[in-house]
Design brief:
Blueprint (H helix, E strand, L loop, with lengths): L1 H32 L9 H10 L11 H27 L8 H22 L3 H31 L6 H11 L6 H17 L11 H4 L9 H26 L7 H23 L6 H24 L3
């Protein structure tokens, strides 16, 4: 019963609430930069409620089981990730061998859900969007994993999230080292791509593909996809905080520092979104397999030398 409570409370309610609030901040800042007023604070919540009340339409000729299962795959996987991160952050001793690998695996599944859903709908525009999403995943996963293994190398080759947090509590945050800074930069851009935000929003590309892989989704299914994206807007920066800032500390001034670090990551994500044009798929591939992979390898080398 305890794990079910953690899964529902931390995995869903906390991450959904935080994610929707962050998405409101993102929309509000973007609107201000474009000389618009922007939505009220409850607008993201209202949008989800409206979608949940609308009719669920199934495209003709679609693979119905895959089409309906795809959004569920994404939200369940991100709920598992959120639950694991909260548990190891609050109780590092609850970590288990390979939980970092488990998190990396489940972080891929929301993108896989978008790919499966796009192809299952049998819509030409959705298929193009799904194809772009698949290429984007292949592009950013290599530098992302390489950069994640910098904290692993610096914590004595530990793949336990709890031990990575404890190591930073004892010896300082990894962001204070050269290898940590370089890997942080790499992961920040990879997270931007995982979130499907500009300049890596080519899979949805509303001005080109009218929503891309999600073009045929409506009602509750579309609401689940939007909830998943909002949750990732909270979970991925939280993951970065654990890897490079030693997790969230809830005691005194340390709690303020943790919160400021989290907010700084959100600010960077919003700034990147609002200061760059959309890239083509081939440009994204060259960017991630070129500069980002080189930076990640350099960070690993520096981490091996203790820098």
């Amino acid at each position: 019963m305890t794990m079910i409570f953690y899964f529902i409370f931390f995995g869903f309610f906390v991450s959904v609430t935080a994610g929707l609030l962050i998405s409101w901040i993102d929309r509000k800042v973007t609107a201000r930069l474009q000389y618009r007023v922007g939505p009220p604070i409850l607008q993201p919540f209202t949008d989800i409620v409206k979608l949940l009340g609308k009719e669920l339409l199934l495209p003709k000729g679609a693979s119905k089981i895959t089409f309906l299962f795809s959004p569920i795959l994404g939200i369940i996987s991100i709920m598992i990730v959120t639950t694991l991160l909260w548990l190891v952050n609050i109780w590092p001793q609850k970590t288990f061998f390979g939980d970092l690998i488990v998190v990396l695996y489940f972080l891929v599944l929301p993108s896989l859900g978008i790919i499966l859903g796009g192809f299952a709908s049998r819509n030409p525009l959705a298929s193009i969007g799904a194809s772009r999403e698949m290429k984007l995943v292949m592009a950013y996963e290599l530098p992302f994993i390489l950069a994640v293994f910098v904290p692993v190398a610096k914590s004595g080759l530990s793949i336990k999230l709890g031990e990575i947090i404890s190591y930073q509590s004892a010896y300082g945050a990894f962001i204070s080292n050269w290898s940590g800074v370089l890997s942080f930069i790499v992961i920040l851009f990879c997270v931007q791509a995982k979130l499907g935000l500009v300049p890596f929003d080519m899979a949805e590309a509303e001005t080109e593909l009218a929503g891309g892989a999600l073009i045929e989704y409506s009602g509750p299914s579309l609401a689940i996809f939007k909830l998943t994206k909002a949750m990732m807007l909270f979970v991925l920066p939280y993951f970065i905080v654990i890897l490079f800032l030693g997790g969230f500390n809830f005691n005194g001034l340390a709690a303020v520092r943790s919160l400021l670090g989290f907010v700084a990551i959100i600010v960077l994500i919003i700034v990147i979104r609002n200061t760059n044009p959309r890239l083509r798929v081939d440009q994204a591939l060259r960017f991630f397999w070129g500069p980002m992979t080189i930076l990640a390898i350099l960070a690993l080398v520096l981490a091996g030398r203790g820098l």
